[in-house]
Amino acid sequence: MIVRKKEVYDGAVPSSNAIIAKSLHHLSLLLDKPEWGQKSRTMTATLGNAIVRYPTSFGNWACLMQEFFYGTNELSVLGEDHNSLKDNILGEYIPHRVLQTAQRSDPRFALLRGKDPGGTTAIWLCKNFSCQAPVTELTDLMLLIDRAEQRS
Q: Listing from the earlier edge strand, what are the strands of the sheet with 97-102?
């Protein structure tokens, strides 16, 4: 694989390779494709020392490296009111996140698989597909995220 310098440096315009690596990571979680996540990690590891030594030259790579370190907030919203709750969640600053919503559980998607909101609309916070008990309010979700970050 040939990598040209202009394709890895992040300046005013993000590196296309950094955007691909981040997309692969997020899609690996959303579509349950671990090999895509591994490809993303390999791409990032290739530049590891440069990212750490010159973070201002590799801003998007550094953000992805940080996401690997702290983990990705995997958010699932299921229930009748999922669209409204999704809009509220997207209005909050939640770094390093992926989000999937639906009316009901869907076995085709890892974040929606096997979850039952029990007649209400519920939010699950997961990391590495390990989920906490669901909550029904955005404020409760934000408290869960804050507590998880404090433990990191």
A: 97-102, 73-78, 122-127, 130-131
Q: Residue 6: pLDDT band by 50, 70, 90 thresholds?
A: low
- Per-residue confidence (pLDDT) for residue 144, from 0 to 100: 94
What one-letter code names the amino acid at 24? L
C-alpha span between 37 and 26 (Å, rounded): 8
Q: What is the pTM of this model?
A: 0.87
- Segments making up each domain of the chain, as ranges: 5-70, 73-151
Going from the C-alpha of 88 to that of each of 78, 106, 142, the distances in angstroms are: 14, 22, 11
- Count of beta carbons in the 10 Å neighbourhood of residue 99: 17
